[in-house]
Amino acid sequence: MNHVPERWSESVQLPDMWLDPDQDPRDTAEPDPVGEQETYARYLRDYRLTLELKCEGLAPEQLARRSVPPSTMSLLGLLRHLGEVERDWRNWISDGERVAPIYGGHGADFDGVRPEPECLAQALQILHEEQHATDRALANFADLGQRVGREEVIVRELQVHRIEEYARHCGHADLLRECIDGRVGQ
C-alpha cells in the first residue's frame, strides 16, 4: 500500500475523537446498569453500535475492501460474519434442529462479499434480524448459570462470549477503517 490516508475526525470539540461526545449514540442519559444481565446487555449494545459507527459513511466498495492483505477480512465481511455468528449462537442454545448457515460454508461470510449496495443492505438486514432473534432466545433464560441446549452452554458464558466477539471485531474494524480513509477509533 503506497497511499497512506491522512488521519481525520469529524469531531469539532476534540479532534482525536471519532464523534463529538454529544452526538455519540452510545452515550445516553440512562443510569448505569444494575445487575449482571443489564450490564451484559449494555456492553453488547454499545459494541454493536460501535461496529456500525466504524462502517458509517463508507461506500459499499470501501466496506468490501480487504485492507490488510492477505486477510479476507473487510468491514462488510465483519457485518456478514457477525450475522452468521448470531445465528450460530442460537444453535448452541437450541434443543431443536440446527439452523443452516446464512452465507454457506466456512469463510463464505468474508469470501462472498461484493462491493454492491444490495450486498450491504442485505448484510445489515440479516445482522439486525439475527441480533434480535438471539436476544429474544436468550431472554427466555433468567438464570445466567443455567446450562442450555444440546451443547449445555452456560448462559453467562455465552453472554460474555458475545461481548468478547463484538469487542474483538471492533478492534479489527478500527484497523480496517484506518486503512481505508485514515479515520481512527475513539
Could you please describe the fold and organization of this structure?
The chain is mainly α and 186 residues long. The chain has a single domain, classed as Up-down Bundle (Four Helix Bundle (Hemerythrin (Met), subunit A)). The protein has 6 helices and 2 strands. Strands 1-2 form a two-stranded antiparallel sheet. It is globular, with a radius of gyration of 18 Å. This is DinB family protein.
Quick overview of this protein structure:
This protein has 186 residues and is mainly alpha-helical. The chain is 52% helix and 2% strand. It comes from Glutamicibacter halophytocola.
Give the topology.
Blueprint: H1 36-55, H2 60-63, H3 75-93, H4 108-111, H5 117-138, E1 147-148, E2 153-154, H6 155-181
Antiparallel strand pairs: 1-2
Helix pairs in contact: 1-6, 3-5, 3-6
The radius of gyration computed from the alpha-carbon positions, rounded to a whole number of angstroms, is: 18 Å
Chain-averaged pLDDT: 87
Coarse morphology: globular
Can you write the helix and strand succession as a string? HHHHHEEH
Fill in the CATH topology: Four Helix Bundle (Hemerythrin (Met), subunit A)
User: Unreliable stretches, pLDDT < 50, 5 or more residues?
Assistant: none
CATH homologous superfamily designation: dinb family like domain
Question: How much helicity do the residues have?
Answer: 40-55%
Number of helices: 6
| Major sheet | 2 strands, antiparallel
Number of strands: 2
CATH class designation: Mainly Alpha
Strands ordered across the widest β-sheet: 1-2
**SSE class:** mainly alpha
Distance N terminus to C terminus?
A: 24 Å
| CATH architecture grouping | Up-down Bundle
Tell me the domain tally.
Answer: 1
What share of residues are in beta strands? under 5%
